[in-house]
Amino acid sequence: MSTEAGRHGAGERRRLRDLGITVGTLPTGPLNAITDVTGVRVGHTTIVHGEGPLKVGQGPVRTGVTAIHPHEGSTFSARVPAAIAVLNGAGEITGRSQVDETGLLDTPILLTNTFSVGAVHQACVEWLSEREPGIGTEDFVVPVVAETFDGVLNDAAGQHVRREHVVAALNDATGGAVAEGNVGGGTGMVLFGFKGGIGTSSRRVAIGDNRYTVGVLVQGNFGIAEDLLVEGVPVGQIVEGEMPPLPRRRHRTPGGDGSVIVVIATDAPLADRQLGRLCRRGMLGLGRTGATARNFSGDLLLAFSNTPQNRLPRQISDPLLTSIRLADERIDDLFQATIEATAEAILNALTAAETMTGRDGITVPALPLDRLVDVMRDYGRIQA
Amino acid sequence: MSTEAGRHGAGERRRLRDLGITVGTLPTGPLNAITDVTGVRVGHTTIVHGEGPLKVGQGPVRTGVTAIHPHEGSTFSARVPAAIAVLNGAGEITGRSQVDETGLLDTPILLTNTFSVGAVHQACVEWLSEREPGIGTEDFVVPVVAETFDGVLNDAAGQHVRREHVVAALNDATGGAVAEGNVGGGTGMVLFGFKGGIGTSSRRVAIGDNRYTVGVLVQGNFGIAEDLLVEGVPVGQIVEGEMPPLPRRRHRTPGGDGSVIVVIATDAPLADRQLGRLCRRGMLGLGRTGATARNFSGDLLLAFSNTPQNRLPRQISDPLLTSIRLADERIDDLFQATIEATAEAILNALTAAETMTGRDGITVPALPLDRLVDVMRDYGRIQA
Amino acid sequence: MSTEAGRHGAGERRRLRDLGITVGTLPTGPLNAITDVTGVRVGHTTIVHGEGPLKVGQGPVRTGVTAIHPHEGSTFSARVPAAIAVLNGAGEITGRSQVDETGLLDTPILLTNTFSVGAVHQACVEWLSEREPGIGTEDFVVPVVAETFDGVLNDAAGQHVRREHVVAALNDATGGAVAEGNVGGGTGMVLFGFKGGIGTSSRRVAIGDNRYTVGVLVQGNFGIAEDLLVEGVPVGQIVEGEMPPLPRRRHRTPGGDGSVIVVIATDAPLADRQLGRLCRRGMLGLGRTGATARNFSGDLLLAFSNTPQNRLPRQISDPLLTSIRLADERIDDLFQATIEATAEAILNALTAAETMTGRDGITVPALPLDRLVDVMRDYGRIQA
Amino acid sequence: MSTEAGRHGAGERRRLRDLGITVGTLPTGPLNAITDVTGVRVGHTTIVHGEGPLKVGQGPVRTGVTAIHPHEGSTFSARVPAAIAVLNGAGEITGRSQVDETGLLDTPILLTNTFSVGAVHQACVEWLSEREPGIGTEDFVVPVVAETFDGVLNDAAGQHVRREHVVAALNDATGGAVAEGNVGGGTGMVLFGFKGGIGTSSRRVAIGDNRYTVGVLVQGNFGIAEDLLVEGVPVGQIVEGEMPPLPRRRHRTPGGDGSVIVVIATDAPLADRQLGRLCRRGMLGLGRTGATARNFSGDLLLAFSNTPQNRLPRQISDPLLTSIRLADERIDDLFQATIEATAEAILNALTAAETMTGRDGITVPALPLDRLVDVMRDYGRIQA
């Protein structure tokens, strides 16, 4: 099978911090990844095969699916507080109405390409039905599937994500380091005109006597090169001028644009309302990378808290539930953490992703890391 | 093939007005259906086969899919103003974020069961990709698929809606009278404890020199018998006491509940913001039938206006668009029309749907029309 | 001083239940009032003086202010979970953005006329500043003041609500029976073409081992006679035809319309998200009385829970807060309670309010109770 | 009278661009101010008197009010499309529910301190009632008054903004250059720990054959020094370390925070929905300056379009309205313009505001411009 599951072979690609570039001031978790939030598990299925001219249904295929489990167990059986917010709505995240209403997430989160939402939804229902009691008779489920559009490189209309890809991502998801760049749902994505995809980052904060982690994973697929800012430095404008013309998305207009999905995880005990607040800080984090949320961009954010005490069983025995939450009066550091981790996750997607050639021979170049470092040094953002 | 497409064999079932019961004061259109809004087309694929014990994947099957085209042409190529609103969010309507952001609907509307959202989404993308230029490379689409849960009668986990069912509903959709009750997406639905499903109604109003139509189609699957009100008369309480115990949904609690999708169409020139206002009046219409929007109910409303002058082509040549709208100061009659048509559509679903036996031999009885008439006469709501 | 504080001299006016008319099926609390929720306190200042032609700034004056304290203490020092929702936004409730963000109410709720929002806001800040530590230096407050428009009867532009009226309503607020009709903020209001104003009602429910109360207070000022439904019976249409023409509001159009403020109190432990759900059921309760939420109507709802364990002190010592909430899976009876109490509160405003003559000799008649009873008996809704 | 109306005596203070610092890439309008949008008028009343210890009701007073008229005429009589959005809701903007519902602004916009919302609201109603026909009888109005909290320097609880101050700001508002810094509603505000207040900026874009202007005015009162970014450069962290300790707000916690009001004006023909999109880009502009939208921050944004053809008269004769709008497909440059102008307006508030000493001798220092320039030069952001 022409599917590569698992880790991205990064070659010479690096993470942003490994280049000496730091976003913000808060410390990261040990992995600088969403999986620094204990229990969070990530799985990627990467689907890459074929070359040459687009033949719809045959390829070339440059796509995949990423699964995120909010904790080490079944989210269906141990639901977690969650919220969704929309910066620009030209995209899809299924399950949004239910998350809004219940303040809960009760399925894994799946990220894929725009046209595979249906197949992934279907596979997720099937996967859950096989594992959880009562689904289909006494109980139902509304999966959360989000997307960005990979039609620049991928045979998107071919709908190449199939049941087994989804099942693999769900089953193989683990903690530990997270592959970034051209993997999973991010395989065929384009970010600020360069190759993008999956990125992740985390921050740790101490509030009162407790330490909490915020981890972010993005599927980044938006923007044009002149928008890109790295800590305010117009890296995209500078580097773009030195390269052959970047391929442009053309969604009905020149400058047409992609999307981004931001998944924010925390172990801090936050209520659904507070998680909505984190989502809105994720928007500010996007803004720090130069995102302008263009017209055709579906910029969607989901936040969850997996604090064990606040997980809600499927079957309620006592009608009175007890939960804990961090006082809003002490939440500011989590806001800062979310902003920083979101911005760094976007930049990690850029520095991790490798140059890719897809349908019709279109090539999207990786952001040249040597030039990134040079420019940042010129602007005093890397110590000589 | 065990699929029945097309009209419902109504037998002795009737529409509410044919029983002498009138909702509200405004006149209906000639068909008293959503298709009184010129250009609106409706197609149902009804999938019924098998009997006896539930075998997941085999049946019994009591489900289907309903397609609504907002006008006589391609909604992809001639987009229409639209809005979505949520009374209670325990359900799914895909495409909501995009409709919110753009104020436009650019796909047909598809109604099905909860677990077939994925299959229907996938089929809709495929159907559109085959017909519309540029999808998958230059352009993308986010379909609108809404659902209610038919697991009381149907092998829901079996995911029996397939590509061909969706294509048939989309292709066969026509104007004219609309089949109601156990058809299309409404096939296996339960409404106030009685058999429910698809219902429709319309109202006509004159504003200034123009006449406008509001048409509503519902997929009704909510409530318990004691909630049912017909023009305020507690028909459900009275009739339930005379019948064998009604089967109850059991979504984790006794009294667990279903959902309703309300599609509101109008030819009045309304902007997206105003269509959101119509959706909120649809909620009041639901309320008039006794709906309480129970915890497990996904009560989702979508409104669109198909005024020809306001349709938006896919490719914009002039960046300046001109549109017309009815002044808010003159909109009240459309509010009243929406309330009345929504309430009557719900009741038409009840009076049209026939008794159905589904999985595990569970039977959901039709609302007995003779008793409905008797009770309404007792309460002075039908002239002797 | 020409101000009448305190109870409404009801004369021959009655409450709906005293006429033999019952809304819904759940039992009321002992007072059938918002004050059945332990700790809730209500105070009215009613300002009535002058007759004859309108002289702006002089009168005639037919207005007032109503204060609601969510519990027996200071809401500033012991904040309560709360939510606000909007059915139609042609009106004002200050503090909405803060309640949305924090999920908390930290001031009393004040109801008045449209043009006195400023004066009441100012007086509330002053009243709080005198009582609570740190306001103005270390701390700030955003009061909640809601309004409906009484310009049919009152010299609205004259802004006759003054500091002392607000202070009196805040200071004199008590538990116990609540005056209804032409009192407080409701003094000059018009409801379904008849005299309206303040109304209240409550419901009791048992969930698990606990009993909870939902109490509603409305300031009702909307609708035209032909919209009025009492348990579905078109009382307004029937009675209007027997009376001299009712005065119509004329907000730029014939049929121009008023507003309604709905305050929902409960002692059930509900989180802010759940209180938003109650607000949306309040909308359904309005719908049951025939409300159509006309264009010029500001139909605003606020719900709070005063469960002692969930009150939040102003100064947080431990950053971790513990709260309890009723499981959503068991919330349905509170939805039903909210719907019923909202509808009955509206009708109580109608049956309590007395005929009033205001500015320019305009008279708004009370709903004739004898006719209400006759009509309801004709429709089988009162036992002979 | 101890009130200073009119221009700010800027002394050695400068605008950001005059220091050689440029935000973004789009050109400004001729004034680089909100008044570059033709017809927009701004008026400030600045109220400064008293020194020494706080005596509530006496002073010291460091406050004011700013009025913005959306066009050269009466907004009441010629309403304009508008939208409001909330990044963090710990603040007030009255009229929000009505703007949401109608998509229109029909009053001037008034900016003041938190506790003067009531007085300003009252004065605005009075000012409108004297000028516009029918208010109080046939018609009503819901003013838009927004606030930030100036209690660090001002006797906030003293409520020193009076009717005459509001009337002066409304009546004296003009086009032309806009005073910035310690003026109007911004008089006593604190921004990133330094003295803040009013700032403004504009951008011009060409779309199709037309040129459009976006102008932004902010009342900036948020953040701590270490958050401040100027084009990504951590100016606040660097400069703060060189200064005596900055006074901190103490809203119940150390690090307690202020607020910001962002008013976005454009002459581009945008519908209310599109103006909401501009508000969300204003959030991204705030984010570029380092805003994290802290817990106690009321970060509220309002956008309006004053395109003459889309102004809506108070009295509608024809129920059909025609409007023009820019296609969403061509809106991206307006997004960019909004982001840049919002960020620059914030920074202009900082560079314009002078050191101020207020109640209890508390001094808030101006951002030292020489150090700003040095730091920006060190980071390669000013050409040597």
3D structure, described in words:
The structure is a homotetramer of 384-residue chains. With 384 residues, chain A is α+β, with helices and mostly antiparallel strands. The first copy, chain A, has one domain: L-amino peptidase D-ALA esterase/amidase (4-Layer Sandwich), CATH 3.60.70. In chain A, the strands form 4 sheets. In chain A, strands 4, 5, 10, 11, 12, 13 and 14 form a 7-stranded mixed β-sheet that branches. A 5-stranded mixed β-sheet of chain A has the order 1-2-3-6-7, with helices on one face. A two-stranded antiparallel ribbon of chain A has the order 8-9. In chain A, helix 2 packs across helix 3 and helix 5 packs across helix 6. Chain A starts with a strand and ends in a 6-residue tail after the last helix. At the A-D interface, helix 5 and helix 6 of A face helix 5 and helix 6 of D.
Keywords, please?
homotetramer; 384 residues; alpha+beta; L-amino peptidase D-ALA esterase/amidase; seven-stranded mixed sheet; five-stranded mixed sheet; 7 helices; 17 strands; disordered N terminus
Tally of discrete structural domains of chain A = 1
Q: Judging from the principal axes of the Cα atoms, what is the shape of chain A?
A: globular
What is the end-to-end distance of chain A?
47 Å
CATH architecture of chain A: 4-Layer Sandwich
Count of alpha/pi helices of chain A = 7
Query: In the CATH scheme, what's the topology name of chain A?
Result: L-amino peptidase D-ALA esterase/amidase
Which sheet architecture does the biggest sheet of chain A show? Answer: 7 strands, mixed
Determine and state the CATH class of chain A.
Alpha Beta
What would you report as the Rg of chain A, rounded to the nearest angstrom? 20 Å
Greatest contact between two chains:
A-B, 56 and 56 residues
Q: What proportion of the residues of chain A is helical, as a percent range?
A: 10-25%
Strand content of chain A: 25-35%
User: Kindly state the mean pLDDT of chain A as a whole number?
Assistant: 94
Q: Give the tally of β-strands of chain A.
A: 17
Low-confidence stretches of chain A: 1-11
Structural class of chain A: alpha+beta
Report the oligomer: homotetramer
